[in-house]
Amino acid sequence: MAVNSTYSTYSTGTLRIGGLASGLDVDSIIEQLMQVEQIKVDRLKQERQLIEWRKEAYREITNLLRAFQDEFFNVLKTDTYMLSSNRYRTFSVTSSAESYITATANASAMEGTYTITKIESLATSTIVKSNEWTFADGKSLDSTLEALGLVNEEEEAKFSINGVTFLIKTPSEVPSEGEGLPPDTVVIDPIKTTMRQLMNIINTNSKAGVNLFYSSIEKRFILQTKATGETSTSILMDGNDNPLVEGSFLKSIGFLDDSGSWAAGVDKIKGTDAKVYFKEIGGSGEILVQNAANTFTIDGVTYTLKNTTPEGAEPITITVTQDVDKAYDAIKSFVDKYNELIDKINGKLNEERFRDYAPLTDAQRKEMSEKEIELWEQKAKSGLLRSDSILQNIVYGMRRALSDAVADIGISLSSIGITTGLYSERGKLHINEDKLKEALRNDPEQVMQLFMKKSSIDYSPDLDSTSRTQRYNESGLMYRIYDILMDNIRTTRNKDGKKGILLEKAGIVGDITEFQNLMDEELKRLDKRIDAAVEAMISKENKYWAQFTALERAIQRMNMQSMWLMQQMGINQS
């Protein structure tokens, strides 16, 4: 934003012609007199520009912190989430027969070999197949329910699946809930809704827990539970093996008979559990593990079944080994990003300030090339956050958080090979790869606790000093860093209605603080001062013009009097 220093901007716009009587260049004289006033306005506008630039610089830091937080403290990003034990105690798992079973391991697993002698069955869904049902000529899944004749004369049908009622009726004739409409009722318009759309409505209803589809090969509708296992026969209503409330619709597509029971010829295939036989550890016996799903976790190892094994098949071995490299890479990734963040903040804190390079005025910009303007503004923007107290507290807090001892944890970063460099590096971390991997291999539990030990006190911006100190001392290094980030870029409010320190100071795009922050308040106050200065400038300009106009009039009267006297005395004026 350029600082407008064009004097004529503040002119009242009145056409003025000076110097006709006096011969003076009144415009030039007043312009020179107004330069002092213009300088006052320019300085205020330069001050405003510096605040705008400083706000932008704060927001750059805020965005850096938000990106850092999102990468390492977002629970949805499981591959980089540093508050998960799976980042520090890691295992690799191999299966000798991946076409039958695969496995993964979490932090609670133990190294070892697990033998599976037989996969007897996989978990399957409960399936109900209607009697044969074909579409009339010209009709298809994309025909409406009315066109398919799947409603009664009153254009109404109602059925229930697992407690969810599906009411096929014109919406304008449907009572509201509390006026006869049961809860969990889905209203379907028979005139506008196609069969395909109805199936999608049923299939996306999580409470119903089933999928309904039409098989063109078998020429019938099929209901299938989303859950698997022997107890997945959840196509039920009030515990009865019958999904019907009022059965005209399900009867019309071949599921029910006139009595509301399953129609003769309907195929019902009961769901099955997965059955896997494990060999006893250190023994010869077998142990049956039965589960309703094909993916299940035992002792930190998650097994995924793919197929049953044939008779006489060789036993399958699942081998769990500690993966130190994966844990090392996770910590190294964090350290690298931490160093980048610290470098950038320290860069702002120690950036040189060129006080002779004030924001350019319009008059100055007119005399410079684009490249000269760019270079000038680089100098003018430099050092705006030099020695800033907010940024100093962030850097100091992070460095202290990583160096202070964690209560009841007998190791530190330095003892596992992560140390700070020279003083000139201002907190940058260095990793001794061999030493860190050795710690991860020999004492993974302690390393994990060092990073992610959880305090008995949860984070809150409203903690008193005693609770905050206790939380700090008890917390692992990652929770300490998390707290610092929250204190500065938190978007939630504390009991006083305040958000994070940086957001309160300069705001961030996409949040209410974008327009409601301390720096914008400062800009508003400065805008009032600028407006007042401009008004004073216009007032002074009018005053000067009034004075010169009075002078012109006086000279004009004197000239007229002089001409009259000369005429009276008969003096020839030619």
Concise account of the structure shown:
The chain is of the alpha+beta class and 574 residues long. The chain has helices at residues 26-72, 195-203, 248-252, 324-349, 362-366, 370-381, 389-403, 433-442, 444-452, 465-474, 477-489, 501-506, 518-568, and strands at 91-95, 101-105, 112-121, 125-129, 157-161, 164-168, 185-188, 210-215, 220-228, 267-269, 274-279, 286-291, 295-298, 301-305, 316-322, 418-420, 429-431.
Explain what the structure shows.
α1 (26-72) packs antiparallel against α13. With 574 residues, this protein is of the alpha+beta class. The strands form 5 sheets. The protein has a 5-stranded antiparallel β-sheet, with no helix packed on it. The protein has a 4-stranded antiparallel β-sheet with strand order 8-9-4-10. A hairpin with an 8-residue loop joins β16 and β17. It contains 13 helices and 17 strands.
Class from secondary-structure proportions: alpha+beta
Percentage of residues assigned to helices: 25-40%
What share of residues are in beta strands? Answer: 15-25%
Question: Could you spell the SSE succession in H and E letters?
Answer: HEEEEEEEHEEHEEEEEEHHHHEEHHHHHH
Please render the helix and strand layout as text.
Elements: H1 26-72, E1 91-95, E2 101-105, E3 112-121, E4 125-129, E5 157-161, E6 164-168, E7 185-188, H2 195-203, E8 210-215, E9 220-228, H3 248-252, E10 267-269, E11 274-279, E12 286-291, E13 295-298, E14 301-305, E15 316-322, H4 324-349, H5 362-366, H6 370-381, H7 389-403, E16 418-420, E17 429-431, H8 433-442, H9 444-452, H10 465-474, H11 477-489, H12 501-506, H13 518-568
Parallel strand pairs: 6-7
Antiparallel strand pairs: 1-15, 2-14, 3-11, 3-15, 4-9, 4-10, 5-6, 8-9, 11-12, 13-14, 16-17
